[in-house]
Amino acid sequence: MNDDLLGRHRAVLPDWLALYYDEPLEITHGEGRHVWDAQGNRYLDFFGGILTTMTAHALPEVTKAVTEQAERIVHSSTLYLNRPMVDLAERIAQLSGIPEARVFFTTSGTEANDTALLLATAYRRSNTILAMRNSYHGRSFSAVGVTGNRGWSPTSLSPLQTLYVHGGVRTRGPFADLDDYDYVAACVDDLKDLLGHSRPPAALIAEPIQGVGGFTSPPDGLYAAFREVLHERGVLWISDEVQTGWGRTGEHFWGWQAHARSGPPDMLTFAKGIGNGMSIGGVVARAEVMNCLDANSISTFGGTQITMAAGLANLTYLLEHDLQGNARRVGGLLIERLRAAAAHVPAVREVRGRGLMIGIELTKPGTDEADPAAASAVLEAARAGGLLIGKGGGHDTSALRVAPPLSLNVAEAEEGAAILEDALRSIQ
Ligand code: PMP
């Protein structure tokens, strides 16, 4: 690697910052659904969509909005009236589906969840939180305290009492063989059992589709069933939409809508790509919950005019171009292509997903045993073929994650599927 950037990285940054690839990649520029590395190699980007670049790399509309705002002013976010913040908050409140919605902007998903937990514990006067096994909610003190995925949850003396609930993933474990109906019933019983044996919790925090966990979905309606049990007891439901928001799942604008039978969550959190690269996170909550704090607050960088301008331009673009519909159509085609390809690869246990959020679970052929080495090998082979994908999964990272920018077109979907097919075949 040029000028030993990797050596310098290792010498000065924490060991726990995970890096992809045997020879880590330095991405230097991008356009549309493509990125280039420092050596000038071009890649189709099937992962950046869930990281930062939800819509497209170097989207001119966002670049223009950011540049114009940077040239005008970037000042304190919250001490003075902030027009782009109010504009974006109005649009998100209206899209959220939460009645009397209030919006608070942060700079990351971690901080969004941290804020949601602060609100829930203050509102309910309880520091007990329900979270899902295998979940990921961020890296702060409280967020690791509700992260069930042990690979991403370092030992910390979290001040929260966390109770982990079944339902996020069922490829393995005691409920693996149940059908959807019995599975939901078993998870609800598990939840009731926990509620019967603990102090009243403040909230349940859950990802509608587990992201870092490998793009695993519970049966539709699980969270509706949970919500009924929780609401009877006044427990709040926080839907972590950091990966599932903004139409990525194709069928719905938010992940929680697959569970909408009994109504919206009390809070939702968002982040990642809404700024198409600018750092925006946030919480949407019912007014009563958002306004429960009994002291002032301020945010220096949450909601700066520059990030809000990016968010507004990006949201406008994605709505005007119906990128949710695009995720449904192109994602549907991609998942079909990947399922057809996987049928010839015994290591693929399952191709799952919704819209442009597709997971491929790898096991040692003919067994149920997770195969993280195979996942790494496919990641490397795809890169060699000119395609970037991600990894994820439970305690073993044995799933591949496909999450391209939402503007992916059919030709790119076909091209990426062909590269991934070759990469999967190469590990046989
Ligand atoms: N929640 C979920 C569901 C996430 O996937 C992530 C990031 N992987 C976070 C929260 C944390 O977001 P950030 O990295 O912006 O802090």
Explained architecture:
- There is one protein chain.
- The mean pLDDT is 95.
- Helix content is 37%, strand content 16%.
- α3 runs antiparallel to α10 (305-320), α7 (180-196) runs parallel beside α8 (222-232) and α12 (372-384) packs across α13.
- The protein has 2 domains: 2-58 and 323-426, Aspartate Aminotransferase, domain 1, CATH 3.90.1150; 63-320, Aspartate Aminotransferase, domain 2.
- It has helices at residues 5-12, 48-51, 60-72, 83-96, 109-124, 141-145, 180-196, 222-232, 287-290, 305-320, 323-342, 372-384, 410-426; strands at 27-31, 34-37, 42-45, 101-106, 128-132, 161-165, 203-206, 236-240, 267-270, 281-286, 348-354, 357-362, 387-388, 390-392, 399-402.
- With 428 residues, the protein is α/β, with parallel strands linked by helices.
- Strands 4-10-9-8-7-5-6 form a 7-stranded mixed beta sheet, sandwiched between helices. It has a 4-stranded mixed beta sheet with strand order 1-2-3-13.
- β1 (27-31) and β2 (34-37) form a beta hairpin.
- It is globular.
- The structure holds 4'-deoxy-4'-aminopyridoxal-5'-phosphate.
- Belongs to the class-III pyridoxal-phosphate-dependent aminotransferase family.
- Pfam families: Aminotran_3.
- Homotetramer.
The CATH superfamily of the largest domain bears the name: Type I PLP-dependent aspartate aminotransferase-like (Major domain)
Class of the largest domain in CATH? Alpha Beta
The kinds of small molecule bound in this structure are: 4'-deoxy-4'-aminopyridoxal-5'-phosphate
Distance between the termini: 30 Å
Proportion of beta-strand residues: 15-25%
Seen as an oligomer or otherwise, the chain set is single chain
Gyration radius from CA atoms, angstroms = 21 Å
GO molecular function: transaminase activity
Keywords: Aminotransferase, Pyridoxal phosphate, Transferase
Organism: Streptomyces griseoincarnatus
Family: Belongs to the class-III pyridoxal-phosphate-dependent aminotransferase family.
